[in-house]
Amino acid sequence: MNADDLRSRQDIEIARQLMQSREVIRINEMIEKREEKGPMGTRRRLLATSVRMSRGMAPWLHNMTDECIESLAVDIPLELYVYASPSFNAACVKPEDGRLFIMFSSSLLEAFEGSELRFVLGHELGHYLYHHHDIPIGYLLNNQNRPDPRLALQLTTWSRYAEISADRAGAHCAKDPQGVARSLFKLASGLSGKLVDFNINEFMQQVDEMQIEDATPGQGSTPEDWFLTHPFSPLRVRALKLFDNSALVKSDGINIDELEAGVQVLMTMMEPSYLEGRTDTAESMRRLLFAGAVCVANANGNISEQEIAVFEKFFGERSFNDELNLDKLNADLPDRVQQTKALTTKAQRMQIIRDLCTVARADHNQSKSELDVIRHIAATLEVPGHFVSQAMSIPTELD
Ligand SMILES: [Zn+2]
After folding, report:
1. CA 49 to ligand 1 center in whole angstroms
2. Domains of the chain
3. Which of 119, 121, 157, 302 has CA 20 to 30 A from 369's CA?
4. Which residues of 151-175 are buried (b: 16+ CB within 10 A; e: fewer)?
5. What is the pLDDT of residues 260-275, one digit of tens each?
6. pTM
């Protein structure tokens, strides 16, 4: 199987839509202009803050990288870097001067071995192979101007599918499903595996506990904190399991349509699918996200006409006829919060808060008063305050 063909279809489709977005085109033009003036200084920064792992220093790592490059048929010169950090991390930086850079945290290099590390390497190379750097998500979400909330949410959704694609590239290099799962477990738990016996079934059980639909609305009947602690990692393992059982990996596997549909079902747990839903619950969630987003933006009393237009564009096309009146929205907010609380499960309420944080974070200048508004909505919805802190600090860059 050609590694090019492993890329998730949703990744391809959402990336295609994003590449046509006016904001993405504008930021990419800006970056291109800046690059014309000379390299962006990535390599210089890396050399100043990290250690370059030459072939002489770590021949085993270079041999492993060579194998991954061959598996994926990636054709670009590569430099490997390591930086001191106790948390397991790796990243692939957009090429500069025709050279690709992959960096690892020191702890990851020491705790990952064999197919675990091959998975990480393949994953990072996958980001390059699938052109993920074409969408400068960090720039877009850490921009001076508040981006369209739809764009912020779409970028976040896309980034998860991009990780799914990269994971497939990683699995393609590792050729060892157990090693891949162990690698994801290590990344999620921060444990080196020396103290804990890894049990893939227990790890996967976390996903089974993500039963949004089964809970009774209004009751806090599923208070499990799966949203709080790396909800994405067990989903990635599930998505990889589907992939392993698909025609992309073995000849008698499920067909690609089934695979992608299965992945989409998994990922809806992470998606703001209520934005399109026709049920009363979806509508109430949408109305709350709308009112919440506007009130957060106006927390300092300085929402601009332009920002109002952005919100109107995002939410106005949908099923409600709200007049965009700030005073009225502010006054209505407690009612909307209560109404939503009555109709939704705890997981759904967490979803709204998470999406509200995504929209709020997209505004470069978060203030205490903005955060207070979110915290207040969260408290009324009985979503814990530390969930807000966590949702506000999810990294915006792919890693
Ligand atoms: Zn990644």
Report:
1. 21
2. 1-208+225-271 (no CATH), 274-392 (1.10.3680)
3. 157
4. bbbbbbbbbbbbbbbbbbbbbbbbe
5. 998 888 877 667 778 7
6. 0.82
